[in-house]
Amino acid sequence: MSILSQAYTWINLKFLLEGLGVTLEVSLISIVLSFVIGLLLGVIRYVGIKYFSAIVGFIIDIIRNLPLLLIIFFTYFALPKTGLRMSPLSASIAALVVFESAMLAEIVRSGIIAVDPGQMEGARANGMTYWQAMWYIILPQALLKMIPPLVSQFISLIKDTSLATIIVLPELLYRAQIIYGQDTRYMLPMYFMIAVMYFIVCFALSLVAKRMEKKFG
Amino acid sequence: MSKWFKKVLIAVVPLFLLTVLAACGQKQTDNVYQRTKSAKKIVWGVKADTRLFGLMNVKNGDIEGFDVDLAKAITKQMYGKDAQAEFIQTTAKTKVPLLKNGNIDAVAAAMTITDKRKKIIDYTQPYFGAGQSLLVKKGSPIKAVRDLNKAGTKVMAVKGTTAVDNIHKFAPKAKVLELDDYAQSFTALKSGQGVAMTTDNGILYGIAKENPDYEVVGGTFTNEPYGLAVDKGQTEMRAHIDKALDQLQANGTYSRLVEKWFGGIPGFDVKEVEQP
Amino acid sequence: MISVLTNNWSTLLTGFGNTLLSSVIALVFSLVIGSAFAIMETVPSKVARVIAHTYIEIFRNIPLLVITMFFYVVIPQYVAPMTGFAAGTVGLTLYTSSFIAETVRAGIQAVDIGQMEGARSNGMTYWQAMRYIILPQAFRLVIPPLGNQFINLIKNSSVLAFVAGFDLMYQGDALASATFDTFNTYLVVGVFYLVLTLPLSYYMRHLEKKLV
């Protein structure tokens, strides 16, 4: 028992909670940026601009099929060789955004496909241009359909942020390691505590996703 | 089938494009000495997971250790009492990239001077005489590095450190498990992933001090002088750090710091440290 | 880039082999475990459903890296020794099985409910109907999403790098740390991963289109 009370001092818990704050901050910034970029890429891929869409689609496929860890390494350890300098915080966000926007582009594309194709024709028959129909008729419906997978993707992102511990981003897992690095008896209590923290955040979000799925699905 | 196969082939093209792009990328260099002098601030890369050299204090987030104190003293010696030393945590894996990226101005992170690293960064004079040693559980049959030279023996070391190469040299039959930092390595030792952990003696004594079930054995089997480092070509910065080191040695500050951090460690020879 | 490849061919190939081995082992076990929990989620027994649900939610909502580190550093201290490769593969199995369970459950539920009733009224037991009528159809439906899970598995196997699992990422990273040639090394490692994942992903997309 005494080990637990030593491990879970307020100082240590506060140190961890600040780490959870960093995790959530990085995830939130990344999901917002990835959503914007992913939306753009998904639409580009869907509409089929000659060559351009194919190239964009192809780059998306490459990024989607690489391990995120490799993208993090590449961003932080290899890109500086080209003159692009980043702190661990911005490198983490950049790597997550590159990876997530490729994932979201696919979600956007399938969301658009899932909207009845007859609607585009109907809108155009009523005098709308292609882009007007896309913006006012197709995208709003596609976005509603995308909300549940978007939330799931956000959950993945929160979990994936833990990989950035390797480039010394002071997030939750990194801080747990700092604490048990000073006294290795805290290892089990620390892993238990951060597992609980991740679980609470991600599980709560997954409940939200389920509820939305019922509402919009 | 053939359609997606074709796409696979084209996959390689953007990758090559990236390579070309990288080759064209020009990195602009600035004069770190002039910049830090006018800002009166040096950003140091230090360890945050290494007792005695640089360890983060969970209470306030400060990093404490010999390297940190020395870097503070050098900063003040160079730019005056009101100069500021800022500390960024690095690991064995991240310190060189951070220096090359320009995220930090200089490194004070228990880093051995090696010929391989000299090709990409510049070192000051050695400031600390260390040597590689072994940390084992008390009562372990491992007494010296030669005991490791058996097939199936696993030894923990940190990725990107000289310790990895040295074990390949001194105990070629042993398998080295490379982990990302000292905390991970010690954790792995404690978990029984291998029979010993190896790195420089100063770092190992720091761990043994807090974990009385473990001990440093076999003395040192290499000579690992630590140097402070700046990016390649920052000769002005390097010269001024060297000068500050000389002055700190002459006025006794250096000895005082060595005594403060390493004076009370049993089995550790302070004289060895001071003559790297 | 070519010199990275030629100088370190055997190291990288060993890593590639370990990545593949770990992914395949984890795939087989997570398919078995995942399907078992998926069936448990659909049986009439409430206790079974709660157990399955708890398992799935726990492993879905904790980062893979945390699960893996737990097996690498905590389990050996209290239970049994475990190499990095084993810890990584176990972590991958548990994590992936929770996703596979969800996929297979969705497949089972997508098969018309009327079929279960029909089979049972024709004298089959619940398990016979499950085994011969429902599951074969469910699995056909979920092949593309399972394929995507396998791709994720290969990508996720890079966590072995954190626990000295001697996989592709570990070997590549050790190489990059030793030579400082990060750029080319990571590019080569990326190509190795793409050789596995990209064809699989196009093949799955092809299958998906065929099934629709």
From TrEMBL, chain A:
Location, primary (coarse class): membrane
Start and end residues of each ABC transmembrane type-1 domain: 20-209
TM region(s), chain numbering: 20-44, 51-77, 89-108, 129-147, 190-209
Family annotation (Pfam families): BPD_transp_1 (PF00528)
Entry keyword set: Cell membrane, Membrane, Transmembrane, Transmembrane helix, Transport
Top-level lineage group: Bacteria
Keyword Coiled coil attached: no
InterPro entries named in the record: AA_ABC_transptr_permease_3TM, ArtM/GltK/GlnP/TcyL/YhdX-like, MetI-like, MetI-like_sf
NCBIfam families: HEQRo_perm_3TM (TIGR01726)
Protein name: Glutamine ABC transporter permease
Species assigned in the record: Ligilactobacillus pabuli
Gene behind the chain: glnP_2
UniProtKB/TrEMBL annotation, chain B:
Domain (Ionotropic glutamate receptor C-terminal): residue spans on this chain: 50-264
SUPFAM superfamilies attached to this UniProt entry: Periplasmic binding protein-like II (SSF53850)
Protein name listed in UniProt: Glutamine ABC transporter substrate-binding protein
Keywords: Signal, Transport
Keyword Signal found: yes
Signal peptide limits: 1-22
Gene: glnH
UniProt family annotation: Belongs to the bacterial solute-binding protein 3 family.
Domain Solute-binding protein family 3/N-terminal: 41-265
One matching Pfam family: SBP_bac_3
PANTHER family: ABC TRANSPORTER GLUTAMINE-BINDING PROTEIN GLNH, AMINO ACID ABC TRANSPORTER PERMEASE
Keyword Signal (UniProt): yes
TrEMBL record, chain C:
Regions that span the bilayer: 20-40, 61-79, 183-203
Origin superkingdom: Bacteria
Pfam families listed in its UniProt record: BPD_transp_1
Main location, first listed in the record: membrane
Bilayer topology term: Multi-pass membrane protein
Claim: Cytoplasm is one of the keywords in the record: no
PROSITE patterns (UniProt xref): ABC_TM1
This protein's record includes keyword Transport: yes
Keyword terms, alphabetized: Cell membrane, Membrane, Transmembrane, Transmembrane helix, Transport
Cellular compartment(s): Cell membrane
Domain ABC transmembrane type-1 per the UniProt entry, residue ranges: 16-204
CDD domains tied to this protein: TM_PBP2
InterPro entries: AA_ABC_transptr_permease_3TM (IPR010065), ArtM/GltK/GlnP/TcyL/YhdX-like (IPR043429), MetI-like (IPR000515), MetI-like_sf (IPR035906)
Entry-linked Gene3D superfamilies: MetI-like (1.10.3720.10)
Homology family: Belongs to the binding-protein-dependent transport system permease family.
Name of this chain's protein: Glutamine ABC transporter permease
Organism: Ligilactobacillus pabuli
